[in-house]
Amino acid sequence: MSKERMKPCPFCGSKGKDLRVDPSGVLRFGGKVDPLGWSVCCKKCLCCGPYHDDKTEAVKSWNTATRDQ
Ligand SMILES: [Zn+2]
User: Fold this and answer.
1) Which residues pair with 41 in a beta bridge?
2) How far is the CA of 35 from the centre of ligand 1 (A)?
3) Torsion-angle region of residue 68: left (phi > 0), alpha (psi -120 to 50) or beta?
C-alpha cells in the first residue's frame, strides 16, 4: 500500500495529520450530495487544494501548488 506524501501547508506550515484528503460535494435539496471530487485540506487554516476526481491526483496537485513557496 503506497501513499502519496503531502507537503506542508504553504500558509501555516501544518503537516502530517493536520492535512487531510477529503471528498467534497454540493449539497442538494433533500440531502443529496453531488460529488465534486477530492482535495487536500488543511485543518488548521482551512485552506484547500485543487479538486480532482482522483485522490492521488489531488495530493499531486497540492504538492505541485506548494512547491517553491
Ligand atoms: Zn494551513
Assistant:
1) 20, 48
2) 24
3) left
pLDDT of residue 23: 87
By the 10 Å C-beta count (0-12 exposed, 13-18 middle, 19+ buried), 27 is classed as exposed
Q: Name the pLDDT band for 68 (thresholds 50, 70, 90).
A: low
Q: What integer is the mean pLDDT of 12-18? A: 94
Environment of ion ligand 1 (residues, CB < 5 A): 9, 11-12, 14, 42, 44-45
How far is ligand 1, taken at its centre, from the CA of residue 17, in Å? 11
Whole-number Å distance, alpha carbon 38 to ligand 1 midpoint, is: 17
